[in-house]
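Troubleshooting: if your tokenizer reports a length mismatch, compare your output against this known-good record of 298 residues.
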Amino acid sequence: MASPHTELFTLRDLLRWAVTRFQGANLVFGHGSDNAWDEAVYLLLHTLHLPLDTLEPFLDARLLERERQRCVDLIHERVSSRKPAAYLTGEAWLQGVRFLVDEHVIVPRSPIAELLGEQLAPWVEDPDAVAHVLDLCTGSGCLAILAAMAFPDAQVDAVDLSPGALRVARSNIALHGLQDQVRDLRSDLFNHLPADRRYDLILCNPPYVNEQAMDALPEEYRHEPRLALAGGDDGMDLVRRILADAPRYLAPEGLLVLEIGHEQDHFLAAFPHLDPIWLSTASASDQILLLRRAQLAA
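Known-good structure output:
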């Protein structure tokens, strides 16, 4: 138990101290925030059970000793463990939606979420016509749930190999009351899916980090499951399997939306014959690609 910092009276005091601690420890961000200030704000507001989008009215509020101690302990834990903030709070936010998380899943942050917020326009011409969606490598189930919200008439399959990840996904499906629309399935990619299943849309944020990049990952990222990150020597091990098998599970006009992070060069080297559409978001460019079934079947 950390000693109480009795000189930290207000939330403003704690925020200044937390940012100093984070900066001094050279923490790495990228699991919901990209800087020390935003992460300190989130951790402290969460700990104090205050609205996460309302800081200003509380900045000069004095804290009770037990409140201050909880905040100090959490800041110390973030620095000493180097765990992403989401693992310390048990939750993550994506597109304004809350998801439960633990260390069986990577922290939700896929830029595909932003595209789902726009119903994948203009590539999906009629959102009401989307009847079946597959979220492959679902992890926490975040993209499956956002897809269900984007396409309320669609049935969504959330697929993962990890039993631990599927337990988290199941909790999130229940959290959002989507048990009738989203179902979790255990499968090694397509291997254990019914052979007659056809999807209008397949979403996938697979393990794609190449081996050299895996070796250089900051400590924060090493808390995430290797199974969900490592993509082999060039990062394309699972991508090769996905592209080979996807045509059998896509509807005739079906679309595959695939995230590959910073592996565009490796993707282009591995699949020189493909000409995907590269989708950009506010936070990412050249990290998400779209392929039609006809391209993959050819």
